[in-house]
Write a structure and sequence with these properties.
Length: 107
């Protein structure tokens, strides 16, 4: 939980595990766990997106990270990389150009 708090961008909420070998991570609004999956997998990071655990749509973007078979160093490295990926996704969202409006359609 400490590594996540240090590495993830503002707006991320972490629910410390009460037991088990996974931790629930609520991502900042607008983050897309499905869109992050390929980039994360290319870096050796696997997680389960929140949609797998939900019966109905709703809730914010989140994911479940399993840590049971990892060393503390591997956890810190993976969490740092995941945090960087989430930040980059947020930056691209903010920088995305808005489509130009067609003035003819506004009349």
């Amino acid at each position: 939980a400490e590594a996540l708090a240090a590495a993830m961008p503002a707006g991320t909420r972490v629910r410390p595990p009460a037991g088990g070998s996974a931790i629930w991570v609520a991502l900042p609004p607008g983050a897309d766990p499905d869109a992050l999956a390929a980039a994360a997998a290319a870096r050796g990071i696997a997680y389960t997106p929140d949609r797998v655990f939900r019966i109905e749509a709703g809730g914010g973007p989140a994911l479940s990270l399993s840590f049971g078979a990892l060393t503390p160093d591997a956890i810190r490295e993976g969490v740092a990389e995941l945090g960087a990926l989430v930040r980059r996704q947020g930056e691209r969202r903010v920088r995305a150009p808005r489509p130009a409006r067609d003035a003819r359609k506004l009349r």
